[in-house]
Automatic annotation (TrEMBL):
This is Carbon starvation protein A. The lineage of its organism: Bacteria, Bacillati, Bacillota, Bacilli, Bacillales. The chain crosses the membrane at residues 6-22, 58-76, 82-104, 125-144, 156-177, 184-205, 225-241, 262-287, 307-336, 357-376, 382-405, 412-431, 443-463. Residues 4-200, 297-422 form the CstA N-terminal domain. PANTHER family: CARBON STARVATION (PTHR30252:SF4), INNER MEMBRANE PEPTIDE TRANSPORTER (PTHR30252).
């Protein structure tokens, strides 16, 4: 109990103090007109109040990630608390703030365009491919569950449910942001927050002992914590998917001073939600063995349903049903929207085509493969989501490092988490079944080699910064 409550307090303090420090390092310009006004088009560039931007950003980046991922990560025991708290404040919050604010600084640019500006064209091409693949996988992975639930609770068949959901995805991708997303997301956000807060309060007063802090690995299968925990719990600590979503909201921010609330604040909020569900997962079933058994038999959706109903009664059952249907859909639709924006950015200067036709074509180019992928096994899709997700997160952190080095700022705020995630991703790719599936010790050695090489390149980049650096104002709101 003490660990759980203390962790929530630390996350809040992280937003208040470390988030403010990150804002000072980045250096905001509150008097500068943002792209929401200078490029206002009543489609993507639409000024929105900060509270609505925060709510939409939270729904964009959250969905079921901080619920299903946290419940699965709870199998490792209370060490998951450490990763959520430290990862969220030091890595995830920094990642999300820089991805949102750099997008804003570059006229609402998508993530791959930022990669080209700060890391070069070759890495941009790689990032374009990985980003769109990630969007397709996320849209597919987060639609199968709701479609199955709808088909089990209503006369609608699974295929018809898929068609209905994807029809909504296409509409959400091509209509102005204030027509659908801006109107219904605040309502969905309230459901997500009420669901998490209700579970937290009920858990505290349930009398069930919430485990206290330990670094011991309690996973029933003995799967190593490093680096699998960092991939299992991604959305509650650091997630590359977030940097593909931040440009959607960067185009609506009315003032740079709102960035910390919208971007860093949404990440901290998601961390708190992940913390609540991790605590519920490792507590409710009498430990990690009981949780593991339940996950195998009824899956994460069933686990969430059981916890909600038994802690909150019939109301909890309704919240769980709404959550499992609505929350993944709110991630899938913006995944399609952001992939549409990425494809538009990539081809609009290369192909002569009407902007509306390009927008619709880009939406279907991602929607069609996502539709067919949604019919295969969810757990298979989710493994590849985790794989690509953290690669994207690592690249975004190095984009942040490049920006900070360019303007002679405190680059270690992004450099330390970038090195950490480089090591984690390298070992994971070498070790995981969806990677090279090497023996664990071999993967550790290979990951260490990659880590050392990247560290040397980082040090060389630091030593090259010998000339006076220009002010970042020269990059303000460039396209």
């Amino acid at each position: 109990m003490i660990t759980f409550i203390s962790s929530i307090i630390i996350l809040i303090l992280g937003y208040v103090f470390y988030g403010k420090y990150i804002e000072r390092v980045f250096e905001i310009y509150p008097d500068k007109e943002t792209p929401a006004y200078s490029k206002q088009d009543n489609m993507d560039f639409v000024p929105m109040p900060a509270w609505k931007g925060w709510m939409i950003q939270l729904l964009n980046i959250a969905g079921l990630g901080p619920i299903f991922g946290a419940v699965s990560g709870a199998l490792y025991g209370p060490v998951a608390f450490i990763w959520i708290v430290v990862g969220c404040i030091i890595a995830g919050g920094v990642h999300d703030y820089f991805s949102g604010m750099l997008s804003l600084r570059h006229g609402g640019a998508q993530f791959p365009k930022l990669v080209q500006h700060y890391l070069g064209k070759f890495i941009r091409i790689f990032t374009d491919i990985v980003s769109v693949v990630l969007m397709v996988l996320v849209a597919a992975a987060f639609v199968a569950g709701p479609a199955q639930l709808l088909s089990s609770k209503t006369p609608i068949s699974f295929l018809v449910a898929l068609i209905i959901i994807f029809a909504y995805f296409i509409l959400a991708a091509i209509l102005p942001i204030n027509k659908i997303i801006g109107r219904i997301y605040p309502i969905f956000g309230v459901i997500l927050i009420v669901m998490a807060v209700s579970v937290a309060v009920a858990l505290i007063f349930s009398g069930k002992p919430i485990p206290e802090i330990t670094v011991q690995n309690l996973h029933p299968s003995g799967i190593p914590v490093w680096p699998l925990l960092m991939v299992t719990i991604s959305c509650g600590a650091i997630s590359g998917f977030h940097c593909t979503q931040s440009p959607i909201i960067s185009r609506t921010v009315k003032n740079e001073s709102e960035g910390r609330k919208v971007f860093y604040g949404a990440m901290i909020s998601e961390g708190i939600i992940a913390l609540i569900w991790a605590a519920a997962g490792m507590t409710f079933f009498g430990g990690t063995k009981g949780l593991g058994s339940q996950l195998q038999s009824i899956g994460p959706a069933g686990v969430v349903d059981q916890i909600s109903i038994q802690l909150l009664g019939p109301v909890g059952g309704v919240l769980a049903l709404l959550g499992v249907i609505i929350l993944p859909i709110t991630t899938g639709d913006t995944a399609l929207r952001s992939s549409r924006m990425i494809i538009e950015d990539f081809v609009k200067d290369k192909v002569s085509i009407n902007s509306k036709a390009l927008m619709i074509a880009a939406s279907f180019a991602v929607g069609i493969p996502a539709f067919f992928l949604s019919t295969i096994d969810y757990s298979f899709l989710w493994r590849y989501v985790g794989f690509t997700n953290q690669i994207v997160a690592t690249v975004m952190l190095w984009v942040s490092v490049s920006y900070l080095l360019r303007y002679n700022k405190a680059h270690l705020v992004a450099g330390i988490p970038a090195l950490f995630m480089t090591g984690a991703v390298s070992v994971y790719v070498l070790y995981a079944p969806e990677g090279l599936s090497l023996p664990y010790n071999t993967a550790l050695i290979g990951g260490a080699v990659v880590f050392i090489i990247v560290s040397i390149l980082y040090v060389r980049a630091i030593l090259k910064q010998t000339e006076p650096i220009a002010s970042p104002t020269q990059d303000l709101y460039t396209s």
